[in-house]
Amino acid sequence: MHSETPSWQKAAQAKRQAILDAIPQKWRIQYDTLPIDVTGEFIQGYLTPREIEITEADAVVITSQTTSGSWSAVEVTEAFCHRAAIAHQLVNCLHEVFFEDAIRVAKELDEHLAATGKPKGPLHGLPVSLKDQFHVKGVDTTMGYVGWIGTYQGKKDDPRHRVTESELVRELRNLGAVLFCKTSVPVTLMSGETTNQIIGYTWNPKNRNLSSGGSSGGEGALLALRGSPAGFGTDIGGSVRIPASFNGIFGLRPCAGRIPYEGAANSIDGQNTILSVIGPLATSIGGLKLLFRAILSQEPWQYDPLSLPLPWREDIEGQTKKLITQKDSTASQLTFGIMRHDGRVKPQPSVKVAMDLMERILRDLGHQVIEWDPKLCREGQEIASETYDMDGGEDLLSHIALSGEAQIPQCSVEPVKHFNAREVAELNVQKREYQKKYLDYWNSTAKLTTTGRPVDAVICPTAPHAAVIPGKYRHTGYTTFINTLDYTSLVVPICCADKHLSSMNERSEFLNELDRKIYEEYDPEIYHGAPIGLQLFGRRLEEEKIIMIAEYLSEKVKVYTGQ
Amino acid sequence: MHSETPSWQKAAQAKRQAILDAIPQKWRIQYDTLPIDVTGEFIQGYLTPREIEITEADAVVITSQTTSGSWSAVEVTEAFCHRAAIAHQLVNCLHEVFFEDAIRVAKELDEHLAATGKPKGPLHGLPVSLKDQFHVKGVDTTMGYVGWIGTYQGKKDDPRHRVTESELVRELRNLGAVLFCKTSVPVTLMSGETTNQIIGYTWNPKNRNLSSGGSSGGEGALLALRGSPAGFGTDIGGSVRIPASFNGIFGLRPCAGRIPYEGAANSIDGQNTILSVIGPLATSIGGLKLLFRAILSQEPWQYDPLSLPLPWREDIEGQTKKLITQKDSTASQLTFGIMRHDGRVKPQPSVKVAMDLMERILRDLGHQVIEWDPKLCREGQEIASETYDMDGGEDLLSHIALSGEAQIPQCSVEPVKHFNAREVAELNVQKREYQKKYLDYWNSTAKLTTTGRPVDAVICPTAPHAAVIPGKYRHTGYTTFINTLDYTSLVVPICCADKHLSSMNERSEFLNELDRKIYEEYDPEIYHGAPIGLQLFGRRLEEEKIIMIAEYLSEKVKVYTGQ
Question: Where on the tree of life does the source sit, at the highest rank (chains A, B) (predicted)?
């Protein structure tokens, strides 16, 4: 019997085509086969030398050119639009394309600079990409749900559709940023891989056998291809950090209350045991810092009821700089914890190589490094899992049900126990007590350091593996316990999996079956070239300190890896 | 048939007697009849001139004497213990009495000062009272529940009982404060009057026909009688502000995250839609500021996972001072909103007198005063009500059930609908949208001010009445909408109900039946002499600004009222 194509498939197909159609014909590409790695020389092949020069500059260099008028906003915008268009055709990383609008905005910025002699703001002329949770005038926000196409968060005929903008978008426009595309996410957002029925699978540009990570996977892939210099993702379990790690870029999970979430779409909105947070991703630590500081300069707490009145704290920046530069005779004044594994799953050999490199750098620089105890990870991971499932899956299932779209294994949801208010409260108490235990542990490290202070930051893997083989992301615990803690965590790119190096690490003993399984799934050939980033984490609301330390360490990593 | 006294009554009676027995025999008093007003001369009659001198000083004067060694900590502590002992015998305001321990601590402080020449901290030798939610070594925490007597929060044989201390207690000890008693609360904490089966009813010291307010009613009454110079209460719906208003003292509801709640007992712990917060109460605004700053100096965020890393912000203090002193030719640089009623219940004539006085002061001082729209109050009040009942009353009922104690009308709980996690999330979304609407409204006032800035603070009643007639607290909406907003609110004492003044305000039209009922319940004779404080509120985390403005205005109020 011949079956009709379901209507959700037709709607998804039409939207997929509409995204492609939004790319100007001149930027459409044809190919028969693609190499495994489509970054660098491969994508450069589609671009002019000038476009390459512009798009391979980071946000700091770009804004230094655009705010001074050396580069026009239009030229910069066109270059990134072109490169983003190609990126999407290579790895499926975009949900919305609005290049014409971007070029119009860029033109206005150029006119503004010409007329006033002043840039509109610190991001004047900087193209910024956004995960498809932010509402931007004139385009959809689907979050990968077929049932959200042509609606406002699934609501048909809602007057806000294609009209309202998220608070972050308003602030970015104020700052002079040029918005030009929205990037792909896994349906439901609750996945470390990016795949949905509309655009399919977002592949890793460095190794197209692998995942770009998730849920801000489109951001990760686009930045890896330099189709955008910087953008914003969100993170409730690792969704900024995982794509950062998998794509060799920088990503910050700030604590709740720093970057305004007001007016953005979300999954399980109103669940407030563990808040999803917005964080910047960028191709350089300078670019990440630029975006973070720029948003704070807009005083988001005046417009977003959940934002905290914390401007960029110059005093903490200064204190951290002093710790970095002020070294006594035997050791620097910064001390680090190193958490080699989370007590449940040890990292694959490739990630161990990255950890060993980082440890060697810290020791070579004279920093005291203490072993960080992983025993508190498990409870944080379990609290996170319970939190995500608290409503029994009702919210996620209701959005999938809008269109009747088929579920995808990596993002599948099934009905589970639905908590009542008292059970939610009990989980909140457990979470607070867990946070207290972790804080006490952190404070206790003052007894172990030569400085007499608790350690300044901790290094740990972002995932047990480099950019993962599709379908093999079995353990997100390296990122989720940080969400339960609401701690600051910044992913710093370290290296890429190297089949020659990592075969050294033979293991015959395992913590448990999952640990064995993930170890056995390490394949030096398939993973070869996959990026690996490590987390550098600090306590609650320590963004300034962690950004400054990341800036310091990433420079050193470059020296060691010869990047 | 003769019925046995239930065991819960026996347990309550034994505890009530144990509290009295903890008061030294020499401080026990006898009386046949008491005057209506037991403050001032009446209570002074039990004290020496030196005790009166000490106990009628505020926390600023006391610490200036004790930190310099002019007054010994022991002498100060003994004076307050004595006065608190009498206060309790007059109005039932204490749950725990630990004077011996206080005097031992005071002795150590005196020795410390003698030995080192330095005070232990900014609160050296200052007696501080605590609402009976804070755990202090050696004594119970009952929160008025009969079933909590001799247990840790209702748990028998819990090793924490009488052993652990709340984080706030630890910090107060670090600061040199002397803890000497815990003050009464209504059973469940969810009431604007203070009454429970253990100590009975906490009467208003200025007018013993009336309530001392709740739920920090024991704090309010004790401070009104100068049995303590300053203390800490908690507030999830007005529980710091109501007793402050009803007792002619200062009380601050800071925003969540300023004063550490870690390790304190609570009702419906883990409900995190609207967080209960801890706030200081004091007999002077200077005393209140001293306590607030002292706690922040302990960096509570290093020990309490829910505290924010916000020290006392000198820059905001300075900016506010500048606004206060910097006046241009026509108007001061501070502008105020005045919210005369909440759109549901107009204040009784006595409170209107207080509002009119405050408005006159503001206008005389040249401040711009704009009418503050009450239309957003109702939604905030409704969200608060739903939040309090979210678990269907289960938590409160479970604690009442421990002993089987009889319910009390003012604190009665009955089972209602129990929300599920999705309904909780929907309420959280509604709350956030409500906060956003209020923020937008506040920002919109920039169009109405001569300064071009939104108004700096708003004045409104704390309750529709002065210290209330028992059983007649029918509308807590003046305080609850502030909790939904998580705004800063500080109660400033203004005046007392005066039967001669308030008869002027005849009303014949009413907003609704409740409004009529509350108006009709105004009795100039009964209410005569009852204190009235007004709220001065600012936005989220504006404590420094609101404290500075309260300091400025309370000085002016004194001038006008001749206090």
Answer: Eukaryota
Range of lowest pLDDT (A146-155, A320-329, A393-402): A320-329
- The answer to whether ipTM exceeds 0.95 is yes
Rg from Cα positions in chain A: 23
A322 has catalytic annotation: no
CB contact at 8 A, A220 and A186: no
Q: In Å, what is the CA distance from B278 to each residue of A346, B43, B185, B217?
A: 43, 29, 14, 14
Asked if the model's pLDDT at residue A538 lies above 90, the reply is yes
Residue type, A219: E
Distance from CA of A486 to the nearest CA of B (A): 9
> For residue A54, how many other CB atoms are within 10 A of its CB?
26
Residue A562: the pLDDT is 86
Cβ atoms of A381 and A482 within 8 Å: the answer is: no
Q: Quick one: average pLDDT of A115-134? A: 98
- Looking at residue B24, its amino acid is P
| Integer Cα distance of A211 and B36 in angstroms | 77
Nearest-neighbour CA in chain B from A107: distance (Å): 31
> Are residues A59 and A229 in contact, defined by beta-carbon separation less than 8 angstroms?
yes
Angle separating helix axes B73-91 and B99-116, nearest 10 degrees: 160
Is the dihedral angle over the CA atoms B116, B118, B123, B128 positive or is it negative?
positive
Write out B421-442 in H/E/C secondary structure.
HHHHHHHHHHHHHHHHHHHHHH
Whole-angstrom Cα distance, residue B454 to residue B442? Answer: 6
Beta-carbon separation of B425 and A272 below 8 A: yes
pLDDT band at A4 (very low <50, low <70, confident <90, very high): confident
Q: Give the torsion sign (CA, B494, B496, B497, B499).
A: negative
User: From the first residue on, what is the mean pLDDT of each consecutive set of 10 residues in chain B (563 residues)?
Assistant: 84 98 97 95 98 98 97 98 98 98 98 98 98 98 98 98 98 98 98 98 97 98 98 98 98 98 98 98 98 98 98 97 75 87 97 97 95 98 98 98 97 97 98 98 97 96 98 98 98 96 78 97 96 98 98 97 84
The DSSP-derived string for A470-486 is TT-----HHHHHHHHHT
Contacts of B436 in chain A (CB under 8 A): 262, 304-305
Query: Does the CB of A275 have a partner CB in chain B at under 8 Å?
Result: no
pLDDT digits (tens, 9 = 90+) for A193-213: 999 999 999 999 999 999 999
H helix or E strand, kind and range, residue A178 = strand A178-183
Radius of gyration of chain B (CA): 23
> Max CA-CA distance within chain A?
81
Gap between the Cα atoms of A547 and A534, Å rounded: 14
Task: Inform me whether the C-beta atom of residue B379 falls under 8 Å from chain A C-beta atoms.
Answer: no
What does each C-alpha distance from B197 to B17, B139, B152, B411 come to in angstroms? 13, 19, 18, 11
Q: Are B476 and B239 contacting, i.e. CB atoms less than 8 angstroms apart?
A: no
